[in-house]
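Figure 2 data, in text form.
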Amino acid sequence: MNVLVIGAAGKSGEALVNEALTAGHKVTAFVRGAAQYKKANVRVVAGDVLDAAAVNVAVAGQDAVIDALGGKTPWKVTTMETNAAHNIVDAMQRNGVRRLLKISVVGAGESVKNAGFFNEHVLMRTFLKGLLVDKAGMEADHEKTGIAKVLSTEGGEKAHKIGRADLAAFMVQQLESSRYVRQAVTVTTT
């Protein structure tokens, strides 16, 4: 399967690229700086997720998209992920790509019920406040589409114990599974 990983240069993105390669997929990494991104057996497309034309070029020819975008300042309100989601979904619809996997955050959308006391009453009201606004906008944008998607959040009381490799393994398994299509799944360790 041809798989585009958006945000491939980040820590979760790197784990997703590695897992997808291990599973035998043909991976394209969408990153801001192609010169800095070196990974064997990976096609690299440079661009900005806020540039609709660049996203369209990256999505063309793909069977699935994994969106691993994440901001570096979760306390600031931005619209980067909401705007990127719009560009990604538009490009997928233009190119006939029907499978989207996205990493979100516990507390956005339906996952608030899995947040746990500390996350809900401390982190979500302070440190994650800005991030939650953007993630909720992104999730709402995705909900408007007919694209088969799986939305994964790291969450719950044990969220700090899940590793990126475990999340990546789950996400890559969903490329070929229909079990969680059109669902938000909170992934934790036990």
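Caption note: Residues 80-95 form the longest helix (16 residues).
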